[in-house]
Amino acid sequence: MAKKSKSGDARLSWADVRKRVDTFDRKSLVGLVHDLYHASSANRRFLDARLLPSSNSIEKYRRLVADAVYPDPFSRRRVSLRDASTAITEYRRSTGDLSGTVDLMLTCLEAGTEQAADLGYGDESYFAA
């Protein structure tokens, strides 16, 4: 049953979604996964890492983390620690691989250190953040 939010709007919960998914036959379920796979690159990465584990999947996440923390200095892309953190969390949830998760955390630190060394950030408050 849908829950009511404080504003009075009905929200669906995972239990509601699960009841509906439980009614799917195999073909419908595969179709749903297919649609999710093609809906976004995040879904594609998640399903690849969960269903087709390989050393290639951590490399995709490693690249995402490094690019979020230290994008090409000549691009207009901003540094986004949130994107790096999201990629690390997504990897952990999709694989449950603790050592890979720690590896991605270290990649984040290394990319930040490389950025600071290359671009000359010496601001104490920057590193504290």
If you had to describe this structure to a student in words, what would you say it looks like?
The chain has 129 residues and is mainly alpha-helical. The protein has a domain at 54-128. It is 70% helix and 3% strand. It contains seven helices and two strands. It has helices at residues 14-21, 26-39, 41-51, 55-69, 81-95, 98-119, 124-128, and strands at 3-4, 10-11. It has a two-stranded antiparallel ribbon. A hairpin with a 5-residue loop joins strand 1 and strand 2. It is elongated.
Note the run of SSEs as H and E.
Answer: EEHHHHHHH
State the shape: elongated
Helix content: 55-70%
Major sheet summary line: 2 strands, antiparallel
State the end-to-end CA separation.
42 Å
Proportion of strand residues: under 5%
Number of strands: 2
Tally of separate helices = 7
Unreliable runs: none
Strand order of the largest sheet: 1-2
- The whole-angstrom Rg is 19 Å
Structural class: mainly alpha
Mean pLDDT: 86
Kindly list the characteristics that best describe this protein.
70% helix; 3% strand; 129 residues; single chain; two-stranded antiparallel ribbon; mainly alpha; 7 helices
Task: Furnish the topology, listing elements before pairings.
Elements lengths: L2 E2 L5 E2 L2 H8 L4 H14 L1 H11 L3 H15 L11 H15 L2 H22 L4 H5 L1
Antiparallel strand pairs: 1-2
Helix pairs in contact: 2-3, 3-5, 4-5, 4-6, 5-6
In brief, what are we looking at here?
With 129 residues, the protein is mainly alpha-helical.
